[in-house]
From TrEMBL:
<feature type="domain" description="ABC transmembrane type-1">
    <location>
        <begin position="84"/>
        <end position="289"/>
    </location>
</feature>
<dbReference type="GO" id="GO:0055085">
    <property type="term" value="P:transmembrane transport"/>
</dbReference>
<dbReference type="Pfam" id="PF00528">
    <property type="entry name" value="BPD_transp_1"/>
</dbReference>
<keyword id="KW-0812">Transmembrane</keyword>
<comment type="similarity">
    <text>Belongs to the binding-protein-dependent transport system permease family.</text>
</comment>
<keyword id="KW-1003">Cell membrane</keyword>
<feature type="transmembrane region" description="Helical">
    <location>
        <begin position="273"/>
        <end position="292"/>
    </location>
</feature>
<feature type="transmembrane region" description="Helical">
    <location>
        <begin position="119"/>
        <end position="139"/>
    </location>
</feature>
<dbReference type="GO" id="GO:0005886">
    <property type="term" value="C:plasma membrane"/>
</dbReference>
<dbReference type="InterPro" id="IPR000515">
    <property type="entry name" value="MetI-like"/>
</dbReference>
<dbReference type="InterPro" id="IPR035906">
    <property type="entry name" value="MetI-like_sf"/>
</dbReference>
<feature type="transmembrane region" description="Helical">
    <location>
        <begin position="195"/>
        <end position="219"/>
    </location>
</feature>
<keyword id="KW-1133">Transmembrane helix</keyword>
<keyword id="KW-0472">Membrane</keyword>
<feature type="transmembrane region" description="Helical">
    <location>
        <begin position="84"/>
        <end position="107"/>
    </location>
</feature>
<feature type="transmembrane region" description="Helical">
    <location>
        <begin position="20"/>
        <end position="45"/>
    </location>
</feature>
<protein>
    <submittedName>
        <fullName>Sugar ABC transporter permease</fullName>
    </submittedName>
</protein>
Length: 307
């Protein structure tokens, strides 16, 4: 007797997929809006008149448009553009140096043929757990390396990052086939030529991801300038904006103790200047994200699973 089995009811994926696509797009859109909204709010406040802001509070749409905050910042003269140039130079040069040091160190650690790779992996990992501290770092940078008031004081202290080294090591291990390296050696390619012409071109997603992190680190760094820089011509953008804010607060505090100068202090655009500084410090680096987005997303996913 022939037994007929009931076929399972087929699910129409075409009817479900558009619905879930809409739901997921709405969720992602809401999440993206919550990330962008604070920055848009900061921009709106920076273009708001300080007196209206003090009376009516914060608003997404400026009730009275004003450029007083940006005029106050740009009244520093050439110092703002000089600091911007210093930050741009430090960011570009520091990122290139960091990528060279990190990728070469990580590539050596990724090669199984390197006898001491476990030792140097532990050496990099150990620096993530313990550090010499601020005073020894300052003594080494100023007394031994003589980096005080030089552009290298803004580059070398953060040029190496142990976490980035371990990330790139894992990326090389999972994304660069050993057979490709062996084939290059059979064809007579040396280690440096293999690394430069074969490994680096296929590792652009990982390199772009680490490069973006290095770029953010150099662009937002102000602490090294606070420690090692006194020359006004070498002050980076972040440190210069911080000094403007500190000077403005100093003027306000001292003026409030003097009745005749209280009105001058009251006219200073305090809140809007802070927001204008955030815009000036954030907008240039935010504009660089679209150029890194393709490699950045791929670098976060490639190497997470190994076939």
């Amino acid at each position: 007797m022939e037994v007929f089995k009931r076929k399972p009811k087929e699910v129409d994926n075409n009817a479900i997929t558009p619905f879930w696509n809409v739901v997921l797009n709405i969720i992602v859109g809401i999440f993206a809006f919550t990330c962008v909204f604070p920055f848009l709010f900061v921009i709106a406040i920076s273009f708001t008149d300080e007196k209206v802001l003090a009376l009516n509070g914060f608003s997404l749409i400026p009730e009275k448009f004003s450029l007083a905050a940006y005029q106050f910042v740009f009244n520093t003269g050439d110092q703002l553009f000089r600091s911007f140039g210093v930050t741009l130079l430090v960011t570009v040069l520091g990122t290139l140096i960091s990528l060279f040091l990190i990728t070469t160190y990580a590539y050596v650690l990724s090669r199984r043929s390197f006898r001491y790779r476990n030792f140097f992996s532990f050496f990099a990992f150990f620096t993530m757990l313990f550090s010499g501290g601020m005073v020894p770092n300052y003594i080494v940078a100023t007394q031994f390396l003589h980096l005080y008031n030089t552009i290298w004081a803004l580059i070398l202290p953060i040029a190496m990052n142990a976490f980035f080294i371990l990330v790139m090591r894992t990326f090389f291990q999972t994304s660069v086939p050993d057979a490709l390296i062996e084939a290059a050696k059979i064809d007579g390619s040396g280690e440096f030529r293999t690394f430069l012409q074969i490994v680096l071109p296929i590792s652009l997603p990982g390199i772009a991801t680490i490069g973006l992190f290095c770029t953010l680190g150099y662009w937002n760094d102000w602490f090294n300038a606070l420690l090692y820089i006194d020359d006004a011509s070498l002050v980076p953008l972040q440190a210069m904006l911080m000094r403007i804010q500190n000077n403005m607060e100093f003027v306000i505090q001292n003026s409030m103790q003097m009745g005749s100068s209280f009105e001058i202090a009251a006219t200073l655009p305090t809140e809007t200047v802070r927001m204008a500084m955030v815009v000036l410090a954030t907008l240039p680096i935010a504009l660089a994200y679209p150029f890194f987005q393709k490699y950045f997303v791929k670098g976060l996913t490639v190497g997470s699973l190994k076939e």
